[in-house]
Amino acid sequence: MKRHITLHDQKIAYTLRTSKRARRMRLAVYCDGSVVVTTPFYLGETAIERLLHEKAQWLFSKISFFKQFEGLVVARHTKADYVKYKKEAHALAVARAEYFNAMYGFRFNQITIRNQKTRWGSCSRNKNLNFNYKIVLLPQRLADYIIVHELCHLGEFNHSHKFWALVAQVMPDHIDLRKELKRNRIMFQ
Question: Which of 67, 91, 123 is the last residue in one of the domains?
């Protein structure tokens, strides 16, 4: 259900979704600039308006962030894309993980390819490496950065200075690559 609210003299349109499964309110801004509030079905209008007022600065910053991408084509990927690219992504991840791990010497168990919306990769405590199939659609240097990033979690299971020092051993320009990857995330939703 479409609604409007005025925050700091600006009228904001948002979609209200109620859910029996929702345990708390959730506010989301999507890459097309749309705003969605999801709430448990029993919450009233006052609680929703309070949330929007409390999160106004965050909301404006997200809307502003996504405005820079207006007019760009955002690739919408489907399950068929996942099936199409999964084997190729797995082969890339295995080959590049073995290549970079020759420099590190970490032990890991398996490499899995997933269809995730918000993550490029992850490393489990069981030493399994997981990668988004979309790494195969990225420029090689960004796919390499993701693979190195997850490999380094095998040595440091955090984002401490020691972790970033491990990443920098192979990717001294990791800060620039990380920024570029954040920009690409919008394009690969």
Answer: 67
pLDDT tens string for the chain (189 positions)? Answer: 788 888 888 898 999 998 888 888 989 888 778 899 999 988 888 888 999 999 999 998 888 887 876 665 555 678 899 999 999 999 999 999 999 999 999 999 999 999 988 789 999 999 999 999 999 999 999 999 999 999 999 999 999 999 999 999 999 999 999 988 887 665 554
Our count of domains for the chain comes to 2
Residues 60 and 94 in one domain: no
Structural domain range at position 58: 2-67
Length of the chain: 189
Last residue of a domain, one of 32, 67, 102: 67
Q: What letter represents residue 135's amino acid?
A: I
Paired tokens of 56: 């106004």
- Cβ-Cβ contacts under 8 Å for 9 (sequence gap 6 or more): none
> For the domain that residue 123 is a member of, what is the CATH number?
3.30.2010.10
36 has which bridge partners? 15, 28
Say if strands 111-114 and 129-132 run parallel, antiparallel, or are unpaired: parallel
Query: Over the range 109-132, which residues count as b (16 or more CB within 10 Å of their CB) and which as e?
Result: eebebebeeeebbbbeeeeebbbb
Q: Is the same domain home to 25 and 105?
A: no
Measure the CA dihedral 175/176/178/183, to 10°: 150
